[in-house]
Amino acid sequence: MKIKVYNFIFFMIVLLLITSCAKPQAVQHKTGLKSQEMIYSLKEARIISRERLIKQLEAYSVIFIGDYHNSDIAHRFTAELIGSLGEQYKIHLANEWFTPAQNEQLSLFVNEELDKEGFVKEMAWEKRVGYKYESYEPIYQMLKDVNGKMYGINLSKDERSRISLRQMDMMSESEVSFYKNLDLNVTPHQQMLSPFLSHCHAPLKDESDEECVQRMYRVQVAWDEKMGQESALLAQKFLQNPNDKLIVFIGAMHLSSGLGVNMRFARHSNRPFVTILPSFETTVELGLADYVYYINTQKNE
Predict the structure, then answer these.
(1) Which of 74, 112, 154, 219 is the most exposed place for a label (fewest CB within 10 A)?
(2) Using an 8 Å Cβ cutoff, are 61 and 274 in contact?
(3) CB within 8 A of 159, min separation 6: which ones?
(4) Number of domains present in the structure of the chain
């Protein structure tokens, strides 16, 4: 009898050791999404209607929308959301593709003083963006239709280069301050990006792989910090009454799990915000965003 008791105790000890050492699985939502018409609320853990989404967005003056750059579906979704919100609110669109120095040209464009051909040329679209303008055109046309405004929030190519190469002697005083205050120690953000930064894609001469990866991460953080700061400045300047909404339209990876631009924004602004992301998976991790909608990349183009 004692042997059986000892065996049972031994079994329980082993079981406890195994389960205590097991790696916990991430909590996931099985969304059940099947088309772009379906929206999943991670707060409610269920599919909701577009009308319910618009109603819930009333509480937020800042809306972060993630872009999947090759997706016509994602761009149509964003355009339709701008249209729905534009019926009730003044829309201010902050766009990843552009810099604050280009705001004058952006104003001319949305005010119909600069046509499509002129805009594409002025913005050096093919070189700077690299994706089909026609895919993004519904967004810009809808913004014009609702009399919205558009602003740039990103670093210029030269600014990114100076940060990448740590050329402090070539930076302005404000650039030096920006560079010195970059927070490169957000551990969950590092962990999230580690699969994409596991090796160096384009090392410089005499640069080690580790130095290259650090440089790549430094630029990624600089992008997020710049866009977060500029979005906060736009919110402070233009969200003067409840009828104003700021939509920040940037790549989904910059917003994933609340660790990118949206996190940096929160460090500079107390404005309430919400995050909406496209997903080409029907299962998403807890905390990915506030809302997701499904895009089928195989039927995208």
Answers:
(1) 112
(2) no
(3) 175, 226
(4) 1
Residue 3 lies in a domain: no
Residues 137-188: tens digit of each pLDDT: 999 999 999 999 999 999 999 999 999 999 999 999 999 999 999 999 999 9
Give the mean pLDDT of 77-89: 96
Would you tell me the crossing angle of helices 103-110 and 133-145 to the nearest 10 degrees?
A: 70
Q: How many CB atoms lie within 10 A of CB 214?
A: 15
Write out the residue range of the structural domain in which residue 35 sits.
28-299
- Token look-up 């009730």 returns 88
Residue 9: predicted pLDDT:
58
Residues 6+ apart with CB under 8 A from 163: 155, 175, 179, 182, 218, 219, 222
Q: What is the CA radius of gyration of the chain?
A: 23
Residue 166 domain flag: yes
Compute the average pLDDT of residues 87-94. Answer: 97
207 falls within a domain: yes
- CATH code (residue 69): 3.40.50.11550
What distance in Å separates the CA atoms of residue 143 and residue 256, rounded to the nearest whole number? 25
